[in-house]
Structure formats: C-alpha cells, structure tokens
Amino acid sequence: MDRMIYLGMTGAKQTMQAQAANSHNLANANTAGFRADLHAFAPEPVRGPGYASRVNAVSRGLGVDFTPGTMQTTGREMDVAVQGQGWIAVQAPDGGEAYTRAGDLRLTANGNLVTGTGHPVIGDGGPVAVPPHDKMMIGNDGTISIVPQGQEAQAMAVVDRIKLVNPDLEQMEKGMDGLIRMADGLEAEADAGVRLASGVLEGSNVNITTAMVNMIQLARQYETQVKMIQNADENARSASQLLRSQA
C-alpha cells in the first residue's frame, strides 16, 4: 500500500506544479507582450535499490512559446509594437539588460521612459531620459523625437533611440521575472532592421481556451490521484482489521 500512496502523492505533487505553471499563463492572458511558458509531463524512472520497474510522471518546463501575440490598435502615441521578429531592450531589476515585447511605454515624473511594469527602456547610451517637451514621437526605427517645451513644432529634436534587437530565439531564455535574456548572459547587439508600429500594442500569446481546458483536466487529474491515496489508506485499514479479527 505504501507504494500506491507514494505514487499517488508524487503524481499529485507534479500535477500541482503543472497547475501552477498553467495558472501563471492564464493570469497573464491580458499582459502586454507576455510569452507563455510551455510545460508537459515526462517519464522519470524511480532510481534506487532493486529493479527499475517504476516510472513517475514529472512536470517539466519545455521553454517559452515565442509565437507573436495579437496586435491591438490603441491610438496612444506611446504604445508601440515590434513588427515581426525583434525585442525592446530594457533594464532588468538586477541592473542587467533584458528584452521584452511589451510596448506600453510611459514617462515617469523624472522623464525616464519605462514600460508598463516599470522597467527602464534602454537607448543608445543607457536608460532613456526625455527632457520636458510639448510633444513626443517614436519613429518606426525607435527614434525618439520631441518638440522642446515652449518651442515651435519646427523645432523637433532627436533625443535618443530605443535599442531594438533580434537575436536567434534559440539563444534566448525567459527569467523568473518574465523578461527575456540571452542564455549566455551577454547583451544582444542592436539590429537596425527591427521596426516598431506606433499606436499599437501587442497582447499576450496565451490561448485562454486552451489554458482553461488544461486547468480543468489538471484539476480532475489531481482529484483522481487524491482518491487513489484515500483508497490505499482505506485498503490498509481494512487489511489491518482483517488481520486483527483472525488473530
């Protein structure tokens, strides 16, 4: 009975981990530029003394789904979306460089250009800072232009250029903070071929229907594994009572 309980317990634990990953994707279904985590159950032999006769199903991450999300027209001048392949460079919380598809940009009170989650956007010389202005425009090559405060429209000046990159997807990985980084820890080089669309925002690539179906399936699977543990416990109790009655 202990083997049955162990297998049921192990299966329930792995199902909970798979449910957590699926719930994380579902919770970010409306997050701009979010890339879904891929996961699946894989066989893992039970190692130890004796014959290798048992195999557990283990929930494993299979990387990131880099499929583009749907484009949503917002009309907001500071909303930008990468057209095709490419990424926007931002400063990660640890101070390093990371990459995102979230183009919901905004300015802080100090004039720093950040994403909707507060990550500073990186330009040619580091994090982008925009001086006081009457009008701001972001070109399709990432160039940031402004009309300085109190100046005429003809006095348009270039402030900086957003760093846009397009490395091989096989060289990129997703961190726990949701940002994408180079797997080797280095910084990707700027790619002049990457283009932005203004007034457009890329949504999450999470398929809500698929995630909901997975959530239901995993919940039923968890219930089955818990019932298996309960049945093993009941069988053990019945066996103990039978032995006591025959003693």
Automatic annotation (TrEMBL):
It is found in: Bacterial flagellum basal body. Keywords: Bacterial flagellum, Cell projection, Cilium, Flagellum. This is Flagellar basal-body rod protein FlgF. Belongs to the flagella basal body rod proteins family. PANTHER family: FLAGELLAR BASAL-BODY ROD PROTEIN FLGF, FLAGELLAR PROTEIN. It comes from the Bacteria. Residues 5-35 form the Flagellar basal body rod protein N-terminal domain. Residues 81-145 form the Flagellar hook protein FlgE/F/G-like D1 domain. SUPFAM superfamilies: Flagellar hook protein flgE. The keyword Zinc does not apply. It comes from Natronospira bacteriovora. Residues 198-242 form the Flagellar basal-body/hook protein C-terminal domain. The gene is flgF. The basal body constitutes a major portion of the flagellar organelle and consists of five rings (E,L,P,S, and M) mounted on a central rod. The rod consists of about 26 subunits of FlgG in the distal portion, and FlgB, FlgC and FlgF are thought to build up the proximal portion of the rod with about 6 subunits each.
